[in-house]
Amino acid sequence: MLQSSTIQLLRFHFSFFLLPVYLFAVSQVPVINTTHAVLIFFILHFLVYPSSNGYNSYMDHDETPIGGIERPKQPTRQLFYVSIVMDVTAIILSLFISYWFTICIIAYIAASRAYSYRGIRLKKHPIAGYAIVIIFQGAVTYFMVYHGSSIDKTLTIPPANMVAASLLIGGFYPLTQIYQHEADKKDGVITISALLGYRGTFIFVALVYTLAMSVLAMSYFAHNEQKKFFLLATVMLPILVYFFRWAGLVWKDVGNANFTNTMRMNMLASVCTNLAFLTLLIWRGFE
User: According to its UniProt record, where is this protein located (predicted)?
Assistant: First the structure.
């Protein structure tokens, strides 16, 4: 029987924050293999992502708020074993998609472990940690979802969209770390947000997000899909409104860079981005 701490620390709800890349990729696939698209959704959001969360919590033994949990419980050995079972299950199910998809899943799991494992601990290095997150949660995830969801299992993936996926992740990820500077420092971890500082984090995020939207604009305009880009930008507009409002508060008092405001930012960004790409996916049905 699963312990309450294990269920909490798998953080299934956190998969919602990573859903935009999946929706983005599926919305761009010319001909979708629906069965495989659904299976990929399950593999990523109910196995790989939660397992990664659980393993990270097992390594960290967090006592302060972490993504979506204000009062994390202490992990037990059960969490470690459950994460292993989930990973193995994900790899086995991936074989039903394709060998390339399976390779990507194995690489994602390995990168996730290298990020958290005390013996390697990429997360304690601000640049390397940031790079590994945005590459695998962005470009690699886009690649495997696009490839796996396509009817012909194409390996010809739009490079601009892979870059945009990484930049979208890169434009939000530092904000998820902004309230953890002191807790991370005690654990010997220097995140990209801690390296940049409170104000620097907001400036950096604004630049990366602008670059992400610029790449998306070029991609949609290149395919004569201007209307889709404008819809995307409009639905995501509330993100910018909250972002600049929050930045103004932090500029006056860094105490506003707290867990509550971070979770509000994460939730708003996830809802708007998911809604934007889901709308584009539905749009396909009317073309």
Answer: Membrane
